[in-house]
Give the backbone structure.
Amino acid sequence: MSTPLDATAIETIQGFDAEKRYKHLVKEVVANRKIWILIDEHGCVMLNTDDEDCVPVWPNKEFAEAWATGEWDNCKAESISLNKWHSRWTHGLEDDELAIVVFPIQDQEGLVIYPDELDYELKNQAKKQR
């Protein structure tokens, strides 16, 4: 079970640039064995960039919930186990030609990457933590 983040930690992490947030997400997801998405009555929330349809992901429930405002205030944060992410989500996103937007926060975009890239980084991080 992951420990809830305090306000100081949230503020510090929100100050990270997109690349540092990506690295933070990889470490947190592997350490906590889960990744967070937002869902509504239709399923997983999607974002659109100029080039890609994307699924946004976050390392912690607090950051996912912070995104659930405005048009997404009816959404709720849901965790996906790391095993389920590897076994189902990576291939499912690839099959649907969807990208991932890593850890977007208010007023800052996240990095847009492909599912196999995130899968590779998560597996690499897991090897380091053994």
Q: What stands out?
A: The beta strands are 34-40, 43-44, 47-48, 53-57, 76-81, 99-102, 111-113. The chain has one domain: 7-128.
